[in-house]
Amino acid sequence: MQSSEKSQLKEFNFAQKKKISLYSVGVNLFLSLIKIAGGLISGSAALVADGVHSLSDLAASLSVYVGIVISNKKSELFPQGLYKVENLVALVSSFAIFFAGYEIAKDVLFGELTQMKSLSAALIVLGITVLTTYLYSRWERQKAIELNSPSLLADSEHVKSDFYTALVVLVGVLGQYFGYPIVEKIAVVVVIYFIFHSGFEILKEAIKVLLDASLDHESLDKIRAILEAEPRIRSINSITGRNAGSFKFVQLDLALNTDSLKEAHAMAHEIEDEIKEQMPFVEKVVIHYQ
Questions:
Q1: Which pLDDT belongs to residue 218?
Q2: Which end of the chain is more exposed for a tag (fewer CB within 10 A), N or C?
C-alpha cells in the first residue's frame, strides 16, 4: 500500500469513526428523552431512572466523539501522535458503565415502588428501547472491529448495557403491574453482573494499551508469518509492538541476507511496506537489522 493510499485510509477511518460516534450521541439523546417522557406518562420510576442512565450514556458518547477528534490532531508536543486518547476515552467509558450499574442497583434494589398509571406507554417505550439498543450495539460493534477503534467498541458495550437495563426495567414494570416486585430485584442482580463484567473488560484493555502492553498474539503471529515468507530475511531475532488507539506500532530485530548497508536499508523499507500492506492498521514499523 502506497503512502498516499495509507493516508487516504486513515482519513476514511477517521471520518467513519467520527460519523458513527455522532450517531451514538443521537441514539442516546433519543433514548433518554423517550424513557423519561414514557416514565412520567406511565408512572414508572424505573423507566425514569433508566432515562437518567441514558443521559450518562449520552455523556459517554460525547466523550467518545471528542476523543476521536482529538486523537487525529497533530502536535509538536506529542510527536508520536495522540492516538492513545481513544484508549483514554475507553477508560472513562468503563467507569461510566460501572456508574450505570451502580445506579441500576440503587434505583431498583433500594428504590421505592410507585403506582403504575399506564402499562401500554411503558411497554411501547421499552419495546423501542430494546430494539434500538440491540440493533445499534451490534452494528456499532461490527464497525468498531472493522475500524479497529477501542473507543467505539467501548461505546457499543455501553449501548449493549443499556439493552440489558431495558430488559431489567421491562421485568420490573411487569412485576410491578402484576404484583410481584421481587422478580425485578432478582433480574437486576443478574444484569448488574453482565454490566460490570463488560466494564471490567474495557477497563483492562484500555489500561493495557495505556501502559504499552505487548501486541496481541494474533497480530504478532501474523507479522511472524509475513517475515518467515520473506527470503531476504536470514533470521528473526525479535518481534515486539504496542497499540495506540486504532493503530499498531511494531519493532523488529532482523538478520538480513546481505552485507551491503545500502541494500539492507532498502530491504528494511520494502519489508515495512509489505507488513503495512497486509496489516492496514500498522502505523509504523521500526526495523533494526544486521
A1: 87
A2: C
Instruction: Give residue 285's domain range.
Output: 217-289
Beta carbons of 52 and 40 less than 8 angstroms apart: no
Do 200 and 227 lie in one domain? The reply is no
Whether 130 and 74 map to the same domain: the answer is yes
DSSP letters for the chain:
--HHHHHHHHHHHHHHHHHHHHHHHHHHHHHHHHHHHHHHHHT-HHHHHHHHHHHHHHHHHHHHHHHHHHHT--BTTBTT-STTHHHHHHHHHHHHHHHHHHHHIIIIIHSPP---S-HHHHHHHHHHHHHHHHHHHHHHHHHHHHHT-HHHHHHHHHHHHHHHHHHHHHHHHHHHHHT-HHHHHHHHHHHHHHHHHHHHHHHHHHHHHHTTPBPPHHHHHHHHHHHHT-TTEEEEEEEEEEEETTEEEEEEEEEES-S-HHHHHHHHHHHHHHHHHH-TTEEEEEEEE-
Q: Residues 156, 265: one domain?
A: no
> Can you read off the three cell numbers belonging to residue 167?
430488559
Q: Residues 182-201: what's their mean pLDDT?
A: 78
How far apart CA 268 and CA 248 sit, in angstroms, is 18
Place of cell 410491578: 176
Is the CA virtual torsion 234, 238, 239, 242 positive or negative? negative
Sheet holding 247-256, edge to edge: 233-244, 247-256, 282-289
- 161, 31 in Cβ contact below 8 A? no
